[in-house]
Amino acid sequence: MSGRRIVGIVLLTFIFGMAFVGPFVSPHSPTEVLGAPYSSSIGLFGLDGLGRDVFSRLLHGGATLVISGLGVAIAAYLLAAPVGMFMALRGGRPEQGLTWLNDVLLAFPPILLLLLLATASGKGLMVVLVAVVIGNFPQVCRLARAAASNVAQASFIDASRLRGENMAAIVRRDILPNILPTLAADFGTRIASSIMLIAGATFLGLGEMPPSSNWALMVSENRVGMPAQPLATLAPAILIGLFIFGINLAGDRATGAAPRTSRLVHAVRTALAGRATA
């Protein structure tokens, strides 16, 4: 394991610890008023614009952002990756039609789609999450299709078809194991971009609302008081940055060759198919 991945795992462990263990060791309630706004003499990181303990709010505010970022990335892959693999395997007019629809979705930047949904459906975390999933769908679909297109031309795919296996079985047993390293390499980037979108939407006031202690919301709420109490803004911003940085480092060199077991299975299947057609 490379040093970059070790650093990434350490950072992610720290962030996950803050997000999920922090609320149990927080010295104060995230909504408790302790003193004058932007006071730096109370608490480890001082107080925010409403006199609440910044450190306590940091310990309470990470879980939603972490779960949201992971959840929307997983949802996008569960929805889009099978579609992309079926497109590559099916070919013909169905693939062309789905490719055209995918290109139409790619023409809309995710942030624009988010703003349109927020305008039509109102503000809220669920609206933001749905918009981020829809925004990630065409990108994941295109990646899965491109990766699966090369595998779909392999001889072991023809062997599976000659044995009478249905499309779902071919996708599950032959396509997915061979493109999984590519999807895994993109997964970390997808989580990072999703977190940035969710944090940006929350900063703009489209996601979680006060009195939530979401880290992005803390940045938005306390930016006006940054000259008086910079830690109220910098601390949550740094934690968001460390989370994204840790994901990128932990996912470093995730790509690689297909597993040896998959190669062996494919070789055996090809040999059996050759005997059957001989």
Oligomer: single chain
User: Overall mean pLDDT score?
Assistant: 82
Radius of gyration: 23 Å
What is the number of beta strands? Answer: 0
DSSP helical segment count: 10
CATH superfamily: MetI-like
Instruction: Give the CATH architecture.
Output: Orthogonal Bundle
Shape: elongated
The helix/strand class is mainly alpha
> In CATH's first tier, which class applies?
Mainly Alpha
Compressed to H and E, one letter per element, the order equals HHHHHHHHHH
Instruction: Name the helicity range.
Output: over 70%
Question: How many domains is the backbone divided into?
Answer: 1
Distance between the termini: 46 Å
**Which runs of at least 5 residues are low in confidence (pLDDT < 50)?**
255-278
* Percentage of β-strand residues: under 5%
Can you summarize the main beta sheet?
A: none
CATH T-level fold name: MetI-like fold
